[in-house]
Amino acid sequence: MRVPFPILLRISLFVSATLIANALLVAQTSPAGKTYTLSGVIVSGAKRFTREQLISASGLKKGQQIDLPGIDAAADRLFKTGALANISYTYRTAGTSIEVQFKLAEASKFFPCIYDNFVWFNDQELTAAVRRNVPLFDGSLPVGGELPNQVTEELERFLQEHWIKSGVTALMASRKKGEPLSVYEVRVSDISIPVASVTVQGGPLGPEALAKAMHVLTAADYSRSVAHGAGQIGLTEAYGDEGYLQAKFSEPQILMKDPAGRNASLGVMITYKVEAGPLYTWSGIAWSGNRAVSDAELTRVTGFKLGDVARRDKLEWAWVDVQGRYGKDGYLGATVEATPEFDVAQHQVHFQGKVVEGAQYYMGEFSATGVPEIMANKLKAAWRLRVGQLYDTSYEDTFQHHDMTEVMRANATSRFTVTLHRKLDMQNHVVNVELEIK
Asked: What is the pTM of this model?
């Protein structure tokens, strides 16, 4: 829609579902449909992208014949990529020539791309291939818009050029489980790429100790994200479980099993290099913040003695057991922060154990749901912690494995799902227990 103004002033307004581009024309009013020779394009507001990238993505070329709807369409093409938060333009005519100036603000959120299973090419080759026809691609993609689809289409064409027939997807993902979305995983979608073998070079541990981490890799098709996680988490934890608490793994190196480097369905071979570091032993722990439980008692609960191998998995359970010890005395919110101090020369690790005890909690009301009232009353009577008594978290296990089965038939509990819910009254420091039976 174009609305003429007095003194030869015109507002050009382009509207689409996602774009309102305002164009201010200071020139002689022109008849509808008139075409011009594009004399130049000016871009302002760009930081991430260059003027050349934006002009190329718009489809405009100096010297081309264009009318006002054509400029609208160019602005729309730019906006629909998702790389821009907003865009407007002004233009000036001089006879049969027209100059356009785009004013824009770039999108604030871009996620880096991970080429997850393109085993034939390196990242630089793939990015270069995409940029031939997608000038706004720099290895990252905006959260919305058409740019992700443009990238996958260009990668599909690139694969076809190399006689590889497959679709390509680009999906947002998180770097670690439970974290917010932060990357695009770009994947070949129609080719099975098994993991033929996994090798760890340079460390003292054999396949048995590493079996769990390796199984994660070999149980599914190759994925760079999974291979990275297996090295930085799975294999690192496996070494830690043997006392190598500072083991470091290289990024996985991938080699196609096909000597010609073409047939990915034959699988890939993954190699890691490890710097194992020292085998650490426990040299003690210094406690702070603990008033209700003594240092000696807390150390005893960890299960470690001087000279024991400091196994990662045992250490994790030690801190859980310390919290459990506090739970026996009603400290349901107690936390433990254990900070290691490594003596590399002596191959020893000493810990600073900071305890926050919190408040003590007392038993409130007990209830059971999912069973007839008469059974609920029997279960309530079987629960030994009485109202006002100091709450003991260790009793929960005793109740579910002994006292509850005394009320219900010994084999009946296996037919139900039993969940014990603690409902904390944090103001009054009371625990109300609900036993849910389904």
From this structure: 0.79
